[in-house]
Backbone:
């Protein structure tokens, strides 16, 4: 049910971005980019308690009138960003979490592929499939 | 269908192809193997081929009519030229080179073919066409080749299949090989020169068409693979097939084998590229066409895969790590993207490594891809890793001809249910995990007494300073450590958290060890009984009921020994036990119940058997001593002495040692001996008090436990109080202890699996342990006191005696 899903590498360049409404993609790209700032802020904030297990799920990064942006960061500083439509109020936190979990799992599968070089954009069809499944079906 | 204008060359070429494909001579080519092969040989991405078929209307019609076929061919040519596929271009593009069909499973060969384009423009095409023609007849083609070239058209950039003929070799894979496969063998590699058609085309086109048809149908794994399979199944034209798909493993070698195969191929090989393999595949497919599953792995294939697997990983049940697999498959020269996709498909359990099955599946997919088959989106069932390992030995050694996935009759790859090998692996992984987890339960089984363990446990558990004080105070007694530990234990029982039940077990075991003597055991039992939480658990650590006077902790050995020694003596002095009770009442504040129990035990012990009493007294005293220093407060402990009775009885031997432990060397020694006299003395309140006091003091001094005087005082009191109690309770206590002890063994075993329960039981046991230890110490003290009393009494007696003598 997401409108846009993005995977950003540790160095803050995108590994994978996909939006459903193929128009206005640039807008989503921009949104994701700005959300990175919020992600960084959240990471650094939690980093104070270094010993503690940092929560991977960052939650709602920031809402706009059109959509909400959720963030998730892995232990290797790879960030997942999901943009959902604000009108889609049925999405609960748990669902977002499960989406992130699925993303994370699929992402690790991609990483496990020896033919994939970390740092390359993700070209796995399986990953695409999963992401498409999560995108707004309206296509 | 759009009107199509073909040049002469094209016309001829196409008609040749069509004839080739039109095996049924129905003037319309169904999407049969040849067509597919042909199209596949065009080396276009499958999507393009699909597009072409759609554009030409074959999809609509369901078959390739001549016109559709021609259109398709033209589109192929267009696509190969890199032009976008448009219907309009059909007619607009002039000078379009002839579509090239290359059976290039091997991309290298494809490239090779490309070379030909520039070579010999003389339109060796016909030759290739000839080659295209089924081999057997193929020979004839060569003849044809000649003429055609002559008539070859202007060479655009003619692809030079014919030119290739000049160079025989190169396309080793050229299916030409097709060992006499029936004629229709898909044109091994027919290169169609763009405009080269020449007469040879006649032969070729059919082949090409066939291939094309095959190509279009490539999408349906069924047909394509079938053809491939067919190829395989049939004469297992090993070399070509092998080369084609194996080629990447050894880039060239495979191809080399081909040439030898077909004499005719010499010429054709030149022109005919490696389409051979495809052709063969198709042919075989046609022949065998019985196999529906294009993805099945034949025996030979599997055997080959297995051998390859072995070269990387000798252990067939082992894994190939991702990096090794990457290198291996990179040799196939497939694009990384495709390899990545193949990996995703084949690494079923996503572990970054390939098992034999996964490897075979991946290999198979690579072969398929190299042969032009598109990669599936999902792993085909036949390639799914099996749950059980395939029987490798089953296969035919022939590894060649694996080009196609010929549906070999042999179910080499049993269709496993989609359950994955991951399950297997999961199971394997789980087992060890399970085992590990299984081990988790510490299990408090009643451990056999191991004094050392006890000592360790005690040491561990009692980390408090008591121990230190004890140690300081009782340098002499080996048991020194024990009392303190006992005290500590008593103190910490609740807070104690055993790291693992094992430790508890150990501790308990150690306590058990102390209880080597039946008496101690009973003592402990009673003690445990008295302790608030009867050590149930753990079997190992004798639950609290181990009122073992001998502190399970440390030097229990000594204590036991001394107790044993003293017990004997104590026994003799059983009668004197009476005073044990005197010792006791020392409030064992630390041990809420323990002290009580200890005291009581002591008290009870006194009246009971001398030995028992002595022990109990000692225990109580020790307990008192131990407890007092810790928490003098709890006076009410006295009441629990009843429990000590049994304890005392049993613990006498242990108490003695305890007494020793507690008291200084002197008193300690005295204690055992004095236990008797002490006991007797105890009957005399004062004496008892004194004794107890002495014992207490001794004990206190020895006991690391807190303020000796206090304990002493307490002990006196307790002893006094206890004495009568002891006497009364003695027997009871012993009974109790015995009872408790008897019940002990049953308790431990039950624990088991529940970790929490175990931990709780461990805790309880520890507490009991401490209680018992304390009791023990107290009893020891009492014993000492009694002994002192006895001594004093003896002295008095002697004093009196002379008079008697007089």
Residues:
């Amino acid at each position: 049910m997401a409108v846009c899903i993005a995977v950003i590498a540790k160095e803050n360049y995108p590994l994978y971005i996909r939006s459903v409404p193929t128009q206005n993609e640039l807008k989503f790209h921009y949104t994701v980019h700005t959300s990175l700032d919020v992600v960084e802020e959240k990471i650094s904030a939690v980093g104070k308690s270094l010993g503690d297990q940092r929560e991977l799920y960052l939650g709602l990064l920031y809402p706009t009138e059109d959509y909400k942006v959720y963030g998730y960061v892995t232990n290797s500083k790879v960030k997942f960003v999901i943009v959902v439509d604000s009108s889609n109020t049925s999405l609960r936190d748990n669902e977002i979490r499960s989406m992130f979990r699925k993303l994370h799992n699929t992402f690790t599968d991609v990483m496990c592929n020896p033919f994939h070089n970390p740092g390359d954009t993700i070209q796995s069809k399986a990953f695409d499939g999963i992401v498409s499944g999560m995108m707004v079906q309206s296509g | 269908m759009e009107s199509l204008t073909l040049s002469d060359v094209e016309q001829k070429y196409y008609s040749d192809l069509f004839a080739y494909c039109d095996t049924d001579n129905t003037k319309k080519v169904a999407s049969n193997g040849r067509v597919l092969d042909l199209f596949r040989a065009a080396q276009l991405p499958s999507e393009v081929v699909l597009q072409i078929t759609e554009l030409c209307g074959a999809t609509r019609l369901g078959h390739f009519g001549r016109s559709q076929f021609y259109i398709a061919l033209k589109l192929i040519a267009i696509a190969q030229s890199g032009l976008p596929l448009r219907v309009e271009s059909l007619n607009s593009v002039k000078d379009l080179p002839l579509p090239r069909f290359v059976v290039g499973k091997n991309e290298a060969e494809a490239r090779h073919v490309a070379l030909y384009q520039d070579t010999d423009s003389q339109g060796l095409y016909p030759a290739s066409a000839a080659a295209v023609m089924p081999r057997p007849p193929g020979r004839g083609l060569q003849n044809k080749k000649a003429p055609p070239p002559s008539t070859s058209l202007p060479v655009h950039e003619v692809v030079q299949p014919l030119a290739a003929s000049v160079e025989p070799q190169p396309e080793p894979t050229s299916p030409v090989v097709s060992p006499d496969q029936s004629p229709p063998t898909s044109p091994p590699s027919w290169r169609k020169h763009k405009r080269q058609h020449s007469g040879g085309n006649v032969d070729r086109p059919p082949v090409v068409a066939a291939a094309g048809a095959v190509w279009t149908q490539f999408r349906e794994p069924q047909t394509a693979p079938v053809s491939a399979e067919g190829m395989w199944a049939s004469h297992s034209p090993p070399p070509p097939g092998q080369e084609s798909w194996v080629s990447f493993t050894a880039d060239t070698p495979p191809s080399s084998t081909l040439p030898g195969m077909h004499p005719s191929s010499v010429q054709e090989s030149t022109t005919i590229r490696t389409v051979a393999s495809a052709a063969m595949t198709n042919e075989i497919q046609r022949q065998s066409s019985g196999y529906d599953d294009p993805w099945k792995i034949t025996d030979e294939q599997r055997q080959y895969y297995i051998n390859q697997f072995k070269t990387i990983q000798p252990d067939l049940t082992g894994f190939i790590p991702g990096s090794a697999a990457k290198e291996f498959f990179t040799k196939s020269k497939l694009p990384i993207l495709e390899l990545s996709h193949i990996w995703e498909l084949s690494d079923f359990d996503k572990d970054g490594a390939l098992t034999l099955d996964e490897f075979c599946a991946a290999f198979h997919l690579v072969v398929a891809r190299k042969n032009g088959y598109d990669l599936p989106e999902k792993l085909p069932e036949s390639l799914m890793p099996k749950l059980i390992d395939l029987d490798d030995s089953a296969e035919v050694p022939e590894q060649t001809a694996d080009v196609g996935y010929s549906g070999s009759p042999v179910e080499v790859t049993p269709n496993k249910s989609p359950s994955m090998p991951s399950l297997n692996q999961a199971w394997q992984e789980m087992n060890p995990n399970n085992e590990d987890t299984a081990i988790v339960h510490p299990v408090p089984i009643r451990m056999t007494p191991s004094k050392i363990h006890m000592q360790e446990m005690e040491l561990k558990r009692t980390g408090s300073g008591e121990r230190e004080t004890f140690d300081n105070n009782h340098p002499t007694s080996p048991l020194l450590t024990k009392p303190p530990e006992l005290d500590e234990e008593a103190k910490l029982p609740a807070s104690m958290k055993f790291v693992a039940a094992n430790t508890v077990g150990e501790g308990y075991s150690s306590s058990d060890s102390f209880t080597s003597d039946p008496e101690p055991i009973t003592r402990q039992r009673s003690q445990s009984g008295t302790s608030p939480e009867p050590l149930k658990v753990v079997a190992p650590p004798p639950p609290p009921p181990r009122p073992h006077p001998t502190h399970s902790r440390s030097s229990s050995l000594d204590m036991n020994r001394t107790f044993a020694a003293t017990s004997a003596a104590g026994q003799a002095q059983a009668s004197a036990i009476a005073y044990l009770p005197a010792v006791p009442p020392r409030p064992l504040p630390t041990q809420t119940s323990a002290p009580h129990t200890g005291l009581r035990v002591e008290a009870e012990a006194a009246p009971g058997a001398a030995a028992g009493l002595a022990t109990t007294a000692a225990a109580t005293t020790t307990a008192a001593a131990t407890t007092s220093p810790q928490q003098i407060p709890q006076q009410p402990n006295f009441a629990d002495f009843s429990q000590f009775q049994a304890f005392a009885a049993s613990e006498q031997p242990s108490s003695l040692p305890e007494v020793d432990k507690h008291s200084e060397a002197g008193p300690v020694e005295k204690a055992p001996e004095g236990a008797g006299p002490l006991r007797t003395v105890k009957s005399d309140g004062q004496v008892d008090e004194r004794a107890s006091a002495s014992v207490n003091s001794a004990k206190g001094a020895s006991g690391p436990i807190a303020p000796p005087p206090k304990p002493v005082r307490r002990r006196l009191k307790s002893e006094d109080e206890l004495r009568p109690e002891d006497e009364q309770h003695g027997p009871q206590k012993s009974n109790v202890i015995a009872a408790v002890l008897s019940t002990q063994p049953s308790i431990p075993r039950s624990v088991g699996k529940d970790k929490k329960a175990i931990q709780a039981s461990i805790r309880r046991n520890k507490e009991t342990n401490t209680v018992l230890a304390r009791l023990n110490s107290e009893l020891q003290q009492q014993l000492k006191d009694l002994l002192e009393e006895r001594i004093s009494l003896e002295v008095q007696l002697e004093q009196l005696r002379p008079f008697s003598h007089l």
Notes: The first helix of chain B runs from residue 8 to 21. Chain B has a mean pLDDT of 54. The interface with chain A takes residues 321-323, 325-326, 329, 336-337, 339-341, 343-344, 347, 350-352, 377 of chain B (CB under 8 Å). Strands of chain B lie at 28-30, 63-65, 320-321, 353-354.
